[in-house]
Design brief:
By secondary structure, the protein is α+β, with helices and mostly antiparallel strands. Helix content is 29%, strand content 23%. The longest helix has 16 residues, at 490-505. The two termini are 42 Å apart.
Length: 564
């Protein structure tokens, strides 16, 4: 008999006797449960085994047996809902609880945090949205960028503690010339599907990688010897190993669907592989055949709960209650900012009067005073004066410039963001005070970065989060997917691109990245708005939970300290 059928039989029995202990007999129970006397014995024994009832059979003809209830019908439903939650089936669990969201939140809370099950160490984290694409060759949001790092490997990587380049799939490399680099690949590396990585996987991946602006100087990739990769360039580059740490250069199997922008289960060679990815749950499992140190946590289980904060990762976070955290002790500013990107080619800001107006009217100070902290939840925003914390490039504004005309302004931002709708409403209020209407478009990440509707949009509200704290980390944001090049005067963009190429060609030249950040802001291309505090709670039994530049932590490095 199935467990669900047994529950129905218990409900029938419980309702018939109103949950009261009583004297009865097998014949009466058989009539209640619509089954034979023989089956009644089996059903009763199963209920006794589960601890739902006690059954004391009578001795002697004509005597009544004793039936004692240990569970109520509602308790049974609650136990059933708890099992559904543990399996990640939140909608059926809610239905089993009579659509009581408070009870569901309580059951979810029981499941979050750290636990051990069947010898495996599991960390469960709440998050506010699902992950719909994990293809490193396509535009990714902040959290997806972090997850891709846990799933894939590049030829090189940045050491998060030292901020230095180190080997990943390549254990050594050398520059045979400024236009010819050789990388020596680790042997016996396996992808998550068990397939051995070979040089053809790397060559095929780079056929797609070199389509991106950052990598267009890659002319040819070949394998002259076993476990050896040669990269030939069309221009000098003394900093290629640093460049190859970017997400786009993550190595995928040669049979991957490289063009797909809806990849839910990518195959990588990293410390974790995906075993579940849907609207309710994202689950990673440690890859036992990983070529590096095996992850210390066996399973990372991320639950999609719309009520949790997007800026603060805490295993076991109380639903709808995140208070009392100490900014100085646990939080840090993100490496990036929220900003306005102006369309200076086909938008209103190709007119200097409109650009001056927006720069003076849509300042972070003006917007911040209109934001309701209750709407922002656990986000703590501070004014940004440059695109990175510590950079101060926003020109001083002595007052608002006059509005050039009564027009409709089109603003676009990524959908499913917890803060952008509030910022957009503040902008609407500011513009309305000057008789200007605002049209808002919420677009997918892919639509925004691919340039869909670009010629009809005046302003983009967006954010940048960088993978590390090095100055050159901004280059991946500046160049990737031509989002900025598409709306920036060509001569200005080309000038900055040439500065980067000169820096790559000269190992003694200082980085142009701060100058790029200054020029973007001072020219009016970018208007920085806010930096945000984010971080992780490192106060529990989980060790090694240090927040990285993305506001996450390296899954493979955390571990559980036994509680005494």
């Amino acid at each position: 008999m199935s467990s669900q059928r047994l529950k129905l039989q218990f409900q029938r029995l419980y309702n018939h006797f109103s949950g009261e202990d009583c004297e009865t007999n097998l014949h009466d129970i058989a009539e209640v449960l619509f089954c034979t006397r023989r089956n009644v014995r089996m059903v009763i024994n199963k209920m006794v085994d589960k601890g739902w009832i006690d059954w004391h059979p009578a001795v002697g003809r004509g005597k009544q047996s004793k039936l004692i209830f240990h569970s109520t019908d509602s308790e049974l439903q609650y136990m059933h809902a708890r099992r559904l939650v543990a399996e990640g089936k939140l909608e059926p669990a809610l239905e089993a609880l009579g659509n009581n969201a408070d009870k569901l939140a309580q059951l979810i809370q029981e499941q979050l945090g750290h636990t051990t099950s069947q010898g495996k160490q599991i960390v469960r984290l709440p998050y506010y949205r699902a992950f719909s694409n994990l293809n490193p060759l396509h535009p990714l949001r902040r959290s997806e960028q972090h997850l891709v790092r846990q799933i894939f490997n590049g030829l090189t990587r940045i050491n998060e503690e030292k901020e230095e380049v180190e080997g990943d799939l390549a254990h050594h490399w050398e520059a045979l010339s400024p236009r010819h680099w050789r990388f020596y690949i680790r042997p016996a590396v396996r992808f998550h599907d068990g397939k051995l990585l070979d040089c053809n996987d790397i060559i095929t991946t780079f056929e797609y990688v070199k389509k991106h602006r950052l990598f267009r100087h890659i002319k040819k990739v070949e394998s002259p010897y076993v476990n050896t990769i040669d990269i030939h360039l069309s221009s000098d580059d003394h900093r290629l190993p640093e460049l190859l740490t970017n997400l786009q250069a993550m190595i995928q199997p040669s049979d991957s669907d490289f063009d797909n922008d809806n990849v839910l289960f990518p195959t990588g060679s990293g410390p974790y592989k995906i075993i579940q990815n849907d609207k309710q749950r994202f689950k990673l499992e440690a890859f036992d055949q990983y070529f590096g140190f095996r992850a210390l946590i066996d399973v990372v289980d991320i639950w999609m709960l719309s009520e949790v904060a997007a800026c603060y990762l805490q295993p076991g976070t109380e639903i709808n209650q995140l208070s009392g955290w100490n900014v100085s002790a646990r939080m840090q500013l993100d490496e990036g900012c929220n900003y306005l990107l102006f369309n200076r080619l086909t938008g209103l800001t190709n007119n200097d009067d409109w650009l001056d107006y927006f720069q003076s009217r849509l300042t972070s100070l003006n917007i911040l005073r209109l934001l309701n902290q209750d709407d922002l939840g656990d986000f703590r925003l501070i004014n940004a004066y440059g695109i990175l914390p510590g950079w101060a490039h926003v020109p001083f504004q002595s007052g608002s410039k006059p509005v050039p005309a009564k027009r409709t302004v089109t603003l676009a931002f990524p959908r499913q963001h917890p803060v952008y709708p509030q910022i957009a409403e503040a902008i609407r209020t500011l513009l309305a005070e000057d008789g200007v209407k605002l049209k808002v478009l919420e677009l997918s990440t892919m639509d925004i970065w691919s340039g869909k509707h670009a010629d009809k949009i005046d302003i983009w509200l967006g954010g940048m989060s960088l993978m590390n704290y090095r100055d050159d980390a901004i280059l991946s944001w500046y160049f990737n997917f031509d989002h900025i090049a598409r709306v920036m005067p060509k001569e200005e963009f080309d000038e900055l691109e040439q500065a980067v190429m000169r820096w790559r060609a000269d190992p003694e030249k200082t980085s142009p990245c701060q100058d790029i950040g200054a020029r973007l802001v001072q020219s009016g291309q970018i208007l920085p708005l806010f930096h945000n505090w984010h971080g992780v709670d490192d106060s529990g039994v989980l060790q090694g939970m240090q927040s990285n530049s993305m506001g996450w932590f390296d899954f493979k490095s955390v571990w559980m300290k036994p509680e005494h």
